[in-house]
Amino acid sequence: MSSYWDFQGLHGVMAEFADPEALLAASKRAYEAGYRNMDAYTPMPIEGLAEAIGFRKHYVSLAVLIAGLCGCCGGFGLMWWITKVAYPENVGGRPFNSWPAYIPITFECTVLLAGLTAMIAMFAMNGLPQPYHPVFNNPAFDRASQDRFFLCIEADDPKFDREETKFFLLQLSPIEVTEVDK
User: Fold this and answer.
1) For helices 103-126 and 60-80, angle between their N-to-C axes, nearest 10 degrees
2) Range of the domain at 92
């Protein structure tokens, strides 16, 4: 294993593949070989790729559920407080706590808070916005949004060794293996 100081200017080693099946197979083999800090870049979604690179579940859906419930309770509570406590008006002999009238506001508050939380949580948990990433330094990476598939094993991986990782990626039959500088 190499020391930390060997990789200060290195982000990782990247392999380029021509088709999604080769990338998926390479990702599975890299994970089986013990690499954990890696990322894959593709022009389209590939089923099973997230699991192959060891993607950990984020909690965007849980945050949205909690925010939706808070919006629901908040909207209903606000309407109840307005009609029962703050401004009780007896209109047409209806009771102060006429809950069917609260449904539209309750629904709108639920959707508003859940939607805003979904956007904010997605950005926060995905580390966005990220206008610069070291993989942009690789000239071949321009094709990642067109017709090429990339697997990058990052230098901060515990198993990473510059030469061994390059050799491992070359065994996976890529088009090209390159080092990615920071």
Assistant:
1) 150
2) 60-126
More confident: 92 or 60: 60
* Cα–Cα dist 37/20, whole Å: 20
Q: Is residue 67 part of a domain?
A: yes
The domain tally of the chain equals 1
Give the sign of the dihedral formed by CA 9, CA 12, CA 18, CA 20: negative
For residue 119, the one-letter residue type is M
Q: Which stretch of DSSP H or E encloses residue 40?
A: strand 38-41
Cα separations in angstroms, 117 against 92, 104, 110, 121, 123: 39, 20, 11, 6, 10
**CA angle, residues 18, 20, 22, in degrees to nearest 5:** 70
**152 domain-assigned:** no
Using alpha carbons only, what angle is made at residue 34 by residues 32 and 39, rounded to the nearest 5 degrees? Answer: 85
**pTM of the shown model:** 0.74
Mean pLDDT score of the chain: 92
